[in-house]
Amino acid sequence: MATYKIDPMHSEITFKVKHLMITNVTGSFQQFDATLEADADDFSDAKISFEAAIDSISTNNEQRDTHLKSDDFFAAATYPKLSFVSTSFTHKSGSAYALVGDLTIKGNTKSVELAVDFGGRMTDFYGQDKAGFEITGKINRSEFGLTWSAVTEAGGVVVSDEIKLNMAVQMVKQA
Question: Which of 29, 36, 28, 13 minimizes the C-alpha distance to 130?
Fold first, then answer.
């Protein structure tokens, strides 16, 4: 069985959420880890695990990041990590796969399905075997206990429940 680890220098874990229902705010996690294990060259039997440090969340606004880490949202002091463990990785067609797994945020675990575009494999300048993936999906934040909400004076929603996920990931085969 081949084991791959995420290359954090060539990967990004981002999300988007509607603010005031008119624009998106983009955020990312700066500290994360992932492992992929597979026998098949096309990764069709892959087992994937991922985690991100909540304290590493960044939306390029310190006040907002502090609020996200608070008990109103992620409760980082109590729940320092979010995690994902795959239950299936199914080849659909061409480079398209469906990744299903258990996502745990703030102590709440739900099954989620993510779309994966397998970018291919390449050997880098250092002889490392790498594989690239683009992963997208949507979750409902309130299903994971992220229920803070506010309404503007005009009655508008401040933060949507739907969170769009987008990950660009390079995995490095381990010796």
Answer: 36
